[in-house]
Specification:
Elements: H1 5-17, H2 21-26, E1 33-37, E2 54-60, H3 66-73, H4 76-81, E3 85-91, H5 94-103, E4 108-111, H6 113-122, E5 128-137, E6 139-143, E7 158-161, H7 167-178, E8 193-196, H8 202-208, E9 213-217, H9 220-226, E10 230-234, E11 245-252, H10 253-258, H11 260-279, H12 281-296, H13 302-310, E12 312-314, H14 320-333, H15 348-356
Parallel strand pairs: 2-3, 2-4, 7-8, 7-9
Antiparallel strand pairs: 1-3, 4-11, 5-11, 5-12, 6-9, 6-10
Helix pairs in contact: 3-11, 3-12, 7-14, 9-13, 11-12, 11-15
Length: 370
């Protein structure tokens, strides 16, 4: 029986949401989510923001979420929130973070474009808004150089992506289609075998020879390189100006409406964090790695950390036009029906913060709240 696109999307989300907690825990990065508290000290005389006891912030233990890692480690968020506690929850999967946002377990989150699109469209545009950018780039096609020496050699090989329908999976399926090759999006079978493998176990799968390469974000790409793989393609080379959204900031619409001052405080901290990262790249890299160690119990070695960090651009710009393109790629792959993304962005508070900081405003590509 033919499977329609909306069914494929639902199945993709279900597959990701059903990842066993045991598998995730065995990877050394904690369970599907992990609660942590900020160690940043609250300045004497500070007042609560919007009268809140806490603001709950979600992010992934990935270098592509460097703003959240560094902002937590250096206390930028806590500083702006005053006597309102910054509380953190660490995730390994986009659907889990969206569920946490929907349930109120978190208020604001750093997350990739595909789960943002999926979360927005599944709720008919009622659950979230994208309120800022965070990172661009940091995604590569990394392969076994003994088996794959050129892009055309990818045909017939087994290539891993993190999850069915996730941001990298969509990008790889789109690239495959651009080569004129055929792959069934749901099963991953075709001219290329697309093997959905959690990023935390992909290096082991590569060492075992069960995959020939992977289209993955950092630091997984650099972990594979440390195991002898080679970078065959940097996804940034496929985009205009070599920029595309890999991480943005989302908030629940309810929280945005009820606590705009708290949202503005987090965005101000994000802008300050990004400015500090770009002005102090080596110190920021160390801070991000220190927070990774705090969150997961395991820091990245220099041979992984250094090249991974170099490939990620930290930005306040959500690069909205590229999110729209990524949605079009998902439709082309058969993983998403034509989505209605009008209103997915509300950059009002971010642009207010940027203006106050003397920085250029950012654009929503016509997808903002009217």
């Amino acid at each position: 029986m033919p499977v329609n696109r909306s069914t494929l999307l639902r199945r993709g989300i279900a597959v990701v949401a059903a990842l066993p907690l045991l598998t995730l825990a065995a990877c050394g990065y904690g369970s599907d989510s992990k609660d942590t508290d900020s160690n940043a000290k609250v300045a004497a005389g500070s007042k609560k923001t919007d009268g809140l006891d806490s603001v709950k912030i979600g992010y992934f233990g990935n270098l592509t979420h460097a703003t959240a890692l560094v902002g937590n480690q250096k206390g930028f968020f806590q500083k702006e929130l005053g006597a309102t506690a910054a509380k953190y929850q660490i995730f390994n999967a986009g659907p889990s973070e969206i569920e946490a946002l929907n349930s109120g377990a978190i208020d604001i989150g750093w997350i990739g474009p595909s789960p943002s699109i999926n979360g927005y469209t599944k709720s008919d545009g009622k659950n979230l808004r994208i309120i800022g950018g965070s990172a661009s780039g940091g995604v590569k096609l990394v392969v076994n150089p003994k088996k794959i020496k050129s892009l055309k050699d990818v045909k017939g090989k087994k290539i891993a992506t993190p999850q069915l329908g996730n941001t990298q999976d969509v990008a790889f399926l789109n690239w495959i289609a651009d080569q004129g090759w055929k792959v069934d999006a749901e099963s991953g079978k075709g001219d290329v075998s697309v093997v959905r493998t959690d990023n935390k176990v992909t290096p082991d799968a590569y060492k075992a020879g069960s995959i020939d390469g992977a289209w993955v974000p950092e630091p997984t790409a650099s972990k594979l390189v440390a195991e002898g793989a080679k970078v065959l393609l940097d996804e940034a080379d496929l985009w205009p100006d070599k920029k595309f959204v890999i991480t943005n900031i989302i908030v629940s619409q309810k929280f945005l409406k009820e606590h705009p001052k708290a949202v503005e405080a987090v965005l101000k901290a994000s802008v300050e964090t990004n400015k500090w990262i770009n002005a102090n790249p080596d110190e920021a890299k160390a801070a991000a790695n220190q927070q990774l160690e705090t969150d997961s119990g395991k820091a990245l070695p220099a041979e992984v950390l250094d090249p991974a960090w170099k490939s990620i651009q930290i930005t306040n710009d959500p690069l909205a036009s590229t999110l729209n393109t990524e949605a079009e790629h998902a439709v082309k792959a058969g993983l998403l029906e034509n989505p209605k993304l009008d209103g997915i962005y509300d950059l009002t508070l971010l642009n207010k913060v940027l203006a106050a900081a003397g920085e250029s405003k950012v654009d929503d590509a016509g997808l903002g709240v009217k």
